[in-house]
Automatic annotation (TrEMBL):
Keywords: Membrane, Transmembrane, Transmembrane helix. The chain crosses the membrane at residues 114-135, 141-162, 174-193, 213-235, 242-266, 272-296. This is DUF389 domain-containing protein. Pfam families: DUF389 (PF04087). The keyword Membrane applies.
Length: 313
């Protein structure tokens, strides 16, 4: 269940109440006239089944509440109520399968922006990857995978493509297009400094190593990226955030970027090329799979909504 709170101009309150009272997926309706100060209006609260939330929010937006008032959603961990049980039973589909699109837009929108925090995490992740390459430490490479923040913008691109939100696609693309070159340049600078002080030499990349999988691009690189992108988007849309950790440690985006930076300083241009290709393969595979998952879930959700009416009566 989700808790919905809306701030409504007084002249719209009756329509909002009628909408929520008539919807099978809404219950626990509370109205507090004149309680809102900024923006001024009435406060209307209700608990809604997750699988009905997207339609309810869309209807409230058609009443212009997102501009003249406000709409917020919160997750309810526990709801002990026969009315809540009925709302969940009457709403089409399963809550775990439902996608609240406005919620997803909000999450991916926040994570798609190029800012200092995003760049800092990406730089740290690339530096960790570089250390893992130099020391031949798979554990450090895994650490770099977990720290890397790149899945947020990749998910935002997928959401933007499916919903045709080109502003979201543009912001996320800029974040990746600027973030990775900056992180790789800083990592290359740190590698050059390490080489000048004797901490790094050409022998570090000579021969076979445990971390060679980072630049070993092939069909399985794309397959893993597809699986990771699908799992990551399922995790985001079903609130299974723990699964994201598995996604982070299954793709070699950041490690490939770090490997390319080290290899460039040591003049290992073939490995630079393979690492860069590995990076691109993973980025494309994740976006493609994530967008496909969203398209399938959107179609399923629409089909479920048409199978039975959501209004009472």
């Amino acid at each position: 269940m989700l808790h919905l709170r809306a701030v409504s101009p007084p002249d719209r309150t009756a329509e909002v109440i009628e909408l929520l009272r008539g919807h099978r997926g809404a219950t626990h309706l509370v109205v507090i006239p004149g309680a809102a100060v900024e923006p001024a209006g009435d406060v209307i609260e209700a608990d809604v089944a997750r699988e009905a939330a997207d339609e309810i929010i869309e209807s409230l937006c058609l009443l212009d509440l997102d501009h003249t008032g406000g709409i917020t959603l919160e997750v309810i961990d526990t709801a002990l109520s026969d009315a809540a049980d009925r709302a969940e039973e009457d709403a089409p589909g399963e809550g775990a399968d439902a996608v609240v699109w406005q919620e997803l837009l909000g999450r991916t929108g926040d994570e798609s922006r190029l800012n200092v925090t995003f760049l800092t995490f990406l730089v740290i992740a690339c530096l960790l990857a570089a250390v893992g390459v130099v020391t031949d430490s798979p554990v450090t490479i895994v650490g770099a995978m977990v720290v890397g923040p790149e899945f947020g913008p990749l998910a935002a691109i997928a959401v933007g493509l499916v919903l045709r939100r080109w502003d979201l696609v543009g912001r996320a693309t800029v974040a990746l297009a600027v973030g990775f070159p900056v992180a790789m340049a800083i990592t290359a600078g740190a590698s050059a400094l390490a080489e000048s002080t004797g901490l790094l030499d050409v022998a570090a990349l000579a021969g076979e190593h445990q971390v060679d999988f980072v630049f070993d691009v092939g069909p399985y690189s794309f397959i893993v990226a597809l699986l990771a992108g699908a799992a990551g988007m399922l995790s985001m849309t079903s609130a299974k955030s723990a699964a994201l950790v598995g996604v982070f440690i299954s793709v070699t985006t950041v490690p490939a970027a770090g490997y390319a930076a080290v290899a460039a300083i040591l003049g290992q241009w073939e490995k630079v090329g393979y690492s860069t290709l590995q990076l691109l393969v993973n980025l494309v595979g994740i976006v493609l799979a994530a967008a496909t998952v969203l398209l399938l879930r959107r179609r399923k959700q629409r089909n479920a909504a048409t199978e039975r009416p959501l209004s009472r009566g």
